Amino acid sequence: MNVVAYSLTASAGGRFSINSMTGVVTVAGALDYEMATSHQITARADSADGSFSTQVYNITVSNVNEAPAVAPGQTFGIAQNAANGDHVGSANSPGMLAATDPENGALQNWQIVSGNGSGAFQINATTGQVTVANASLLNYAQTPSYTLGVRVGDGVNASAAQTVTIRVLSPNLTVNRFTDLPDAAALGDGVVDVDLLLRAIRSVFAPPLRKPTLLARM
Prior knowledge:
Elements: E1 4-10, E2 16-18, E3 25-27, E4 38-47, E5 52-60, E6 69-70, E7 74-79, E8 99-100, E9 108-114, E10 121-123, E11 130-132, E12 145-153, E13 162-169, H1 194-205
Parallel strand pairs: 7-13
Antiparallel strand pairs: 1-4, 2-3, 4-5, 6-8, 9-12, 10-11, 12-13
């Protein structure tokens, strides 16, 4: 009986392997239709009598729908005195959540799945825009920020939940003393009167004024 051993001399970058005894080719690495729709391998068969042969095969990759992904690290602000229906964020970034779909499918069925037990916010299922649902719950002192878990679908699959931060902004941020600045303050947390801030700093660090001493010549 003449025994034949099989091997791959070209495995498409390690994406495929072959059973040395049966010659069955299997997937050994990640395949991504969006990156490459086909791969080429070269199989070799070695006979016990010393002869061998090679053959090139083209393997076609079929497309499979992949779930979309909500962009991580999204943060928006909302004023404490906002009204129901107001969108979070600014005019340039009006609370529209970002996500991508590998097949460039239509994003749909946006949902808030966690962090909104009180019902302070709502999301447009079609556009992904977050708006205020119950403005009476916005309280900078009690809840300075919300961490919402959101996800989106593409009509076939749903994304994994991703966290989105909504920061409640104080409507009247003033500074009377240097220590009155909130330790959680960040860019976008309202407007501070620069002159008022400078006066506050001077009142804390500047030494008290003394009356000048007059020297009389004798």
